[in-house]
Specification:
With 470 residues, this protein is mainly alpha-helical. Among the domains are: 154 residues, HUPs (Rossmann fold, 3-Layer(aba) Sandwich); 90 residues, Arc Repressor Mutant, subunit A (Orthogonal Bundle), CATH 1.10.10.350. The protein is 46% helix and 9% strand. It is built from 21 helices and nine strands. The chain has a three-stranded antiparallel sheet. The chain has a two-stranded parallel sheet with strand order 1-2. The protein has a two-stranded antiparallel ribbon with strand order 5-6. Strand 1, helix 1 and strand 2 form a beta-alpha-beta unit. The protein is elongated and about 105 Å long. It binds one RNA strand of 77 nucleotides through helix 4, strand 6, helix 6, helix 11 and helix 17.
Length: 470
RNA sequence: GCCCCGUUCGUCUAGCGGCCUAGGACGAUUCCUUCUCAAGGAAUAAAUCGCCGGUUCGAAUCCGGCACGGGGUACCA
């Protein structure tokens, strides 16, 4: 049997980095086993629906190059892949459950449910549906239906039973059926709830492996029951640990800033580095490698080796991983990525850009670092980190004026001139750096000047801004 | 409240009853290199394996209780 995995996002806003982490596992598992990876859109909550969110999901998957084999956009043998377009299917299966006696109509109003819950809370009872409508006779139901009373469909839960399933990551998990609510499976607007839609569609779309966040563990017994009621085989389930905020307080949230996929793109992270990091926080390469490409990850990873504990998100380590990727890249490829990321770089002379690459590459962690490191190659500094020392600058200028333009010669000249003037060479270097780049920190100075050229370098000493400082 | 999952250096983890005086990586510190900052190399510090009991000749590893953390408890997913 071909393995089929799926990601089932709801179009309610920005894609979460946790979703990408799930996609990575789905994608890797499907590709490892020669199966298919499917995207199904769970757009059943019309109140939270966000226009355009679906396109953003595709764009994110494309950025990470984790595109599905089947989706609402490209279709597939199990279309439609949008739940809002499958309403008739859910209705049919809900009816089947009702006729089998596993589900029932419920006409309770939201107001009644709310007062019921408050009541239960006051009595320190677990907030659960009180099964009022389960007692309705077929006659009552028919009358209410004929009167067009709004209704939902609820699933029945057996009493005093153990409901168990085996999670591929956490192992055997058991629940007492008495703690499980008579969950609504069809809402009054004719849309299914997540619990119903997910079971029906995973079955119909022949999903073999369900990887989802651990927040779903508590609802899995409901799904177990649904599979049982229908007589369907339950897919393998693996609940992935939730990624926590850096301080360990709660799951990675928007509040803490780094939850959105968009953040990583805009900050200058490389998608392959983000994926490498993501794979690394819940799983270890058998040889202890920290850096490995996607192909190697797919070959090496085992779902059973995924840890069950919730990791914190460590931005520092991600930065390191990103830096590793940048350093491993060919200059030409890196330049293409930088130009793609930074509009300012697009217009610039490619020959000059290429010459700057070896000088800045090992100083970069993010693509966004390029411009702050290399801007001085393309424009004279507009300001200086501190006032310049005239004496030191003059020593440097005079030395460079009559010097062959290679970094070795420049170094010799400046050191000699410093000695003659009884100055420390390092101070002269620093002043020169400041005068040419405006900053006290940057790529190797003399090699940078070599790239910059004699005319431009010396020209920078004739500028008004500099004169004012001297 | 109730239910479920989890608990090894600051962080991510390795560990599956003796190979553990607990290994690796990020981060930190120091040194080397050096025109700055990085990168690279070397080294150091850092975990009484949440706590308490039990099983065993022997436990980070198995069992029980507790504590703590996370998640769930909707006509949200």
């Amino acid at each position: 049997m071909t393995t089929r995995t799926r990601i089932a996002p709801s179009p309610t806003g920005f894609p979460h980095i946790g979703t990408i982490y799930q996609v990575l596992i789905d994608y890797a598992y499907a590709h490892k086993t020669g199966g298919k990876f499917i995207l199904r859109l769970e757009d059943t909550d019309r109140a939270r629906f966000v226009e355009g969110a679906e396109e953003v999901i595709y764009a994110s998957l494309a950025w990470f190059d984790l595109l599905p084999d089947e989706s609402p956009k490209i279709g597939g043998p199990f279309a439609p892949y949008r739940q809002s377009e499958r309403l008739a299917i859910y209705k049919k299966y809900a009816d089947e459950l009702i006729s089998k006696g596993h589900a029932y109509y419920c006409f309770c109003t939201r107001e009644r449910l709310e007062t019921m819950r408050k009541d239960q809370e006051a009595k320190h009872q677990p907030p659960m549906y009180d099964k009022t409508c389960m007692a309705l006779t077929p006659g009552d139901v028919a009358a209410k239906l004929a009167a067009h009373e709004p209704y939902v469909v609820r699933m029945k839960i057996p009493e005093h039973e153990k409901i168990a399933f085996d999670d591929i990551i956490s192992g055997h998990i058991e629940f007492d059926s008495d703690v499980i609510d008579h969950q609504v499976i069809m809402k009054s607007d004719g849309f299914p709830t997540y619990h119903f839609g997910v079971v029906v569609d995973d079955h119909l779309m022949e999903i073999t492996h369900v990887f989802r966040g651990k927040e779903w563990i508590s609802s899995t017994p409901k799904h177990v029951l649904l599979y049982k009621y229908f007589g369907w085989q339950m897919p393998v389930h693996g609940h992935l640990p939730l990624i926590l905020n850096e301080d360990g307080k709660g799951k990675l949230s928007k509040r803490h800033g780094h939850a959105s996929v968009d953040y990583y793109r805009k900050a200058g992270y490389l998608p392959e580095a983000v994926l490498n990091y993501l794979s690394n926080i819940v799983w270890n390469h058998p040889e202890g490698k920290e850096i490995y490409d996607r192909k190697e990850f797919i070959e090496q990873f085992e779902v059973t080796a995924i840890t069950a504990q919730a990791p914190r998100f460590d931005l520092k380590k991600l930065d390191w991983v990103n830096g590793q990727y940048i350093r491993a890249m060919q200059d030409e490829d890196l330049l293409a990525r930088i130009a793609d990321f930074d509009d300012r770089v697009k217009q610039l002379d490619k020959t000059l850009l290429m010459k700057t690459m070896p000088l800045v590459k090992e100083r970069m962690h993010l693509l966004s670092d390029y411009w702050s490191l290399a801007a001085f190659f393309f424009e004279a500094p507009k300001e200086f980190e501190r006032p310049l020392n005239k004496e030191l600058v003059n020593v440097a200028v005079n030395a460079l004026g009559e010097c062959d333009w290679s970094h070795e010669k420049m170094e010799q000249a400046i050191r000699a001139a410093s000695d003659t003037a009884k100055l420390k060479a390092r101070d002269v270097f620093m002043e020169l750096r400041l005068a040419v780049t405006g900053k006290m920190v940057g790529p190797p100075l003399l090699e940078s000047l070599e790239v910059l050229g004699k005319d431009i370098t010396l020209g920078r000493f004739q500028r008004e801004e500099l004169d004012k400082l001297l």
